[in-house]
Amino acid sequence: ASSGDTIPEWPKSPRPTPYQVLGVSKSAIYDKRHFYDLVKLYHPDTHDPQGNPSSASASTSPSASSSSSHIGQLPHATRLERYHMIVAANELLSNSSKRRMYDAYGLGWSHGDGVTTLRDIDRNWRHQQGTAANNATWEDWEHWRDAQAGKAGEPVFMSHGAFATIVVMFCVVGAIAQTNRAENSSTVYAGWVADQNNNVGRRLQRNEVMVAGLNKDERVNHFLRERE
Which superkingdom does the taxonomy of this entry point to (predicted)? Predict the structure, then answer.
């Protein structure tokens, strides 16, 4: 491998995290070396239709050659699925804002067990201590305000404008929560995932046009240069 490090084994979990896919620590600064090594093993151009490694993967280190031979025995669909996961994991972890969203809420990764939807966020908010999610009547709001002020036995005064602002804010949050619980929430999320997959597909198709006429080694190297 180009990095000289041992190429990480594929995670045993059927729904791995992006960190597991690329074999990197969640607390570490992201390094693309494992991504480059894995692409050279799983890129569609590194194996012929029968699963035999091309010279692009066979000319690497002995450990890489051994891994390539093992990967060549996998079904084409499995190799291609892993390749897409490798590319998606790199795009997520190499983008600091996307990585923060994933670390905080599990958003942006459609391949793992812990796929977090807006419905999950709403559910967590409703179970937080001191939340106003379940306030329905004027008395509920009074009790909630008393509890927030820590003065259950004393009257709490607030300007009409401030209270109206709070009510409007929670009405908006409640409306969003209701929308998330509706049946079309899964459709919206599925559409988002489909858009992500279509974007990857379009990029792959564009690359196929650009690398037409290149040999297999040149196509793999072109792919890696595009992601430096």
Answer: Eukaryota
